[in-house]
Amino acid sequence: MEETEKKPAGRGQGGACVSILAAAALWGVIGLWNRKLMAGGFTPTDIVVVRNFGGMLLLALVFAVKDRSVFRVRREHLKYFFGTGVVSVLLFTVCYFSCQRICSLAVASILLYTAPSFVVVMSAALWREPVTRKKVLALALTLLGCALVCGVFAGDLTVTAGGVLLGLGSGFFYSLYSIFGRYALDHYPPLTVTVWTFLFAGPFSLALLRPARMAAALAEPRQWLLCLGLVVFSTVAPYILYTRGLARVESGRASIMASLEPVAAALVGVLAFGEPLSPAAIAGIACVLAGVYILR
Predict the structure, then answer these.
(1) 235 in a domain, yes or no?
(2) Residue 164 in this model has a pLDDT that exceeds 90
(3) Residue 206 per-residue DSSP state
(4) Which of 98, 141, 232, 283 could be cross-linked to 291 through a Cys-Cys bond (beta carbons 3.0 to 4.6 Å apart)?
(5) What is the extent of the structural domain holding 178?
(6) 48 burial type by CB count under 10 A (0-12 exposed, 13-18 middle, 19+ buried)
(7) Is 159 left (phi over 0), alpha (psi -120 to 50) or beta?
(8) pLDDT, tens only, 187-206
(9) pTM higher than 0.85, yes or no?
(10) Alpha carbons 184 and 137: distance in angstroms, whole number
(11) Cα 113 from Cα 171, distance rounded (Å)
């Protein structure tokens, strides 16, 4: 396809910010699908396969009918999509779930949300994005807020050296979507970047597939509907929205704003599963919202 001209970052930033926040909210409601899928026999790695391979199938089918131009990219640019799809989307989930197995869930969660710090540092080094006081304050507030929401200060945490390395790896690989994605967006529109991300993430995720276990878990028709909800609402839609926002907003700023995700997850826990909301979690939500507001 013809390379598209990079749109000025200053235009349409309001809509871009809304897209990023909507993406974070949709990522945050993933618990609606994951909990029910795991109750029906799915493992975390099964869910990784469903998200990535299912996302690939959905996007490929839709755009094979709607707009085949998204499949035309230059060979020398495939490295960017390998970066967004395999290095970022797939590896961050592998590290994250591996960290959860040997550390407390709160530790795994907060280490994942070191991602905006990585993005801010790399964006400053690669593109000289300014590290302003406002951005640093927003980063500190959202990181503190995520820690409070995830329950890091509640005690009873399990931490190992290997778990910390895996957790930091999940945050680092997660952050790379905003980096590789920025390079890809210099040449292609957001939909092309999203489609090719999953054209790479989908096939590579099959390395985690256990066919017999997956077939047994999918024996119940209700599980198919849950998988569809997971793929549409907490995978494809948020990645399209986030990539669209990333095309207009600085990478560091976009990543910090996406820290709204644990707030959405906490609210889903309260509204859908009747989980209590502790004073620390309420304070954490306030910190995250304050950090996002600073970057408005």
Answers:
(1) yes
(2) yes
(3) G
(4) 141
(5) 13-294
(6) buried
(7) beta
(8) 999 999 999 999 999 999 99
(9) yes
(10) 29
(11) 6
Asked if the structure places residue 20 within a domain, the reply is: yes
Tokens 């994942």, residue located: 112
Is 245 strand, coil or helix?
A: helix
Report angle CA 270, 111, 56 to the nearest 5 degrees.
75
Contact 75, 127 (CB under 8 A): no
- How big is the chain, counted in residues? 296
8 Å CB contact between 70 and 25? no
Q: Name the one residue in this structure whose structure tokens are 């396809």.
A: 1
Number of domains in the chain: 1
Predicted local confidence at residue 12, as pLDDT: 65
Reported as a single tens digit per residue, the pLDDT across 257-271 is 999 999 999 999 999
Q: Distances in Å between the alpha carbon of 1 and those of 50, 61, 102, 239?
A: 29, 19, 45, 21
- Asked if residue 105 belongs to a domain, the reply is yes
Q: Helix (H, G, I), strand (E, B), or coil: what is residue 129?
A: coil
Whether 5 maps to a domain, the answer reads no
